[in-house]
Write a structure and sequence with these properties.
Blueprint lengths: L1 H6 L1 H4 L1 H49 L3 H47 L4 H12 L4 H23 L5 H27 L3 H28 L3
Helix pairs in contact: 3-4, 3-6, 3-7, 3-8, 4-5, 4-6, 6-7, 7-8
Length: 221
């Protein structure tokens, strides 16, 4: 019996083993929360990349001036970042209102049932975990801006039209593959399939925008 207790740490230190398990569970939960934020940031950056590149390609289809292309990209960056920030703020604030209302109902039930100090500690932990609308809005706007800067920087210093379009497509292709890989890694999805979907989707958006704008511009509408 003595040798068995010596070789089994769980039997000798049950409290330490239980505490270690709780720490591991908390660390896993924190990683899950960080993963959700990172994945949202990657998706926001991908939105900025595809939408801004598509706008620049569309305008570039009918107007080869570099100034027009860059101004279009900048307008898309500002409008998209503001739209993402406002939409995320409204969405997260609605979620916050729902969670706060739920917490109030739980506190009222606990007060009616004669809950003790443990309920107050649980309430403090819940309040710390509430979503932050301002933080979410800022993160969405920054992520969109980061993605939108890729095609703008790629086109900023190239005067030749054909070369500029090729460089923008190449830069966007590389960024799409990187964002697809990051999204797959964070979501634990197949990397090749995820990257291919993101890449083909971005190419499709740019091609449709370029083709339709070219068609409308050629007819003088």
């Amino acid at each position: 019996m003595a040798s068995s207790n010596q070789t089994n740490p769980a039997a000798r230190f049950p409290l330490a083993v239980e505490t270690g398990r709780q720490l591991e569970e908390n660390q896993e939960f924190d990683y899950s929360k960080r993963s959700q934020w990172l994945r949202a940031a990657v998706l926001g950056a991908n939105d900025g990349l595809v939408s801004t590149a598509s706008l620049m390609m569309g305008v570039g289809a009918v107007k080869q001036d570099i100034k027009a292309m860059i101004l279009t990209g900048f307008a898309g960056l500002v409008a998209g970042a503001c739209s993402m920030a406002i939409g995320e703020f409204v969405s997260v604030y609605s979620q916050l209102d729902i969670e706060v209302s739920q917490m109030k109902r739980e506190k009222q039930k606990a007060a009616g049932g004669g809950g003790g100090g443990g309920d107050e500690e649980g309430g403090c932990e819940n309040e710390e975990g509430l979503p932050n609308p301002v933080q979410a809005a800022a993160a969405s706007a920054l992520a969109f801006t980061a993605g939108a800067m890729v095609p703008m920087l790629a086109a900023s210093f190239i005067r030749e039209y054909r070369v500029r379009v090729g460089v923008v497509v190449a830069a966007v292709t590389v960024a799409l593959m990187v964002f697809g890989w990051l999204g797959a890694a964070l979501g634990r999805a197949p990397v090749v399939k995820s990257s291919a979907r993101v890449l083909l989707g971005g190419w499709f958006a740019m091609a449709i925008t370029f083709g339709l704008t070219k068609l409308i511009g050629s007819r003088g509408l």
